[in-house]
TrEMBL record:
Ranges where the ABC3 transporter permease C-terminal domain occurs: 270-383
MacB-like periplasmic core domain ranges (all copies): 17-233
PANTHER family linked: ABC TRANSPORTER PERMEASE YTRF, MEMBRANE COMPONENT OF TRANSPORTER-RELATED
Name of the molecule in the record: ABC transporter permease
Biological classification of the source: Bacteria, Bacillati, Bacillota, Clostridia, Eubacteriales
GO cellular component: plasma membrane
Protein topology in the membrane: Multi-pass membrane protein
Xref: InterPro entries: ABC3_permease_C, MacB_PCD, Macrolide_Exporter_MacB
TM helices/strands, residue ranges: 260-291, 312-343, 355-376
Keywords associated with the record: Cell membrane, Membrane, Transmembrane, Transmembrane helix
Domain of life: Bacteria
Amino acid sequence: MGLMSVMADIWRSRSRSALTMSAVAIGIFSVTVISAAGQIGTAKINDSLDDMGVNSVLVEAQEAGVALSDSDIDALGGLSGVNGAMPLMAQVTKCELIESNVSCMVWGVNEKADEIISMKAIHGRLIDRSDLKKAENICVIDDEIALETYGRTNIVGKTVSVNFGGKYTDFTVIGVAESGLSPIQNMMNDAVPYFVYIPYTTAQNISGKSEYDKIAVLLDKSGDGETAIDRIKTCMANVKGEGSIKISELQSQKKQLDGILAAATSALSFTAGISLAVASVSVMTAMLVSVGERKREIGIKKSLGARNIRIVGEFLAESTMICIIGSVVGIAAGCAVAFVIGLAVGESFVMQTDIMLIAVAVSAVIGMISGSYPAYKAARMKPVDALKM
């Protein structure tokens, strides 16, 4: 009993075999597409969360008299699992643009704002080293202020007057940043008004203080975020004292969201797996019909000395091959659809080899289980009865 013999048996009843393969292919296709959609969805959500600064952590003093300095930035930036740290100075105040006077939060930042707090300029540019060195009176505003006051987002070159201690200081707008990306906005939700970003050196000159209000820390997204956060907490506790520092982060929300998505994908995959159970019934039905059609053939083989194990092997091999071919077709179709989904949402998708092998193996097992009863029935057939037509 060779592969060619099995394929010949399948080809002989090709219409029925094709329908049976289709049932298996649809089941495997469903599981493949749902699993791929879950993988692509997780990647897309994680990318979106990364854009929102979910991999950033805010460190701030929780007790009076505790100050954050350059040495703290160096200590945090050198921790394993941390990609960088930058100073932040913050003040809620008023700012004037043309005839509008709006509440805003002014943030003193450095040239790493795009990387560490996910600032993205949609017009103009962000703050650079030259601005810090000169402590220039320049600013980057979020696009919502621009829309509120000017009715458009591009107001590069305009002047913003910011109230510091009752005195207004003029700043030239060098850039407009996309609102909602910065983690310092996402962590503070709707309680935070409009945002204005200035060089932290300028903020120091105006406020007359050298210490920082907060430190933004960028975590390595390829590492374990929770472990890195624990290191940050330990580091600050050792330097500043237990309970003197507050850590604000979004990693826990990200982990919860990943868990919810994984659970939903598993539930949908289980539902799709039901179609495989239906496919196994189709395989068993097809093989039982095949036994009835091939009674004379079975009788001739047994009368010529074919043993029961050979008859069982032939039917098991046929049912297994039908399921394997169906699974390969289902995987190919599923991967094609997953690739299209990935292109549509801008995420790459690569089907893992081990998953494909598992799918084929599961299909083979289904084939053997589904074909076992028809094979047993064929093997138990007596030659005399089988030759009666």
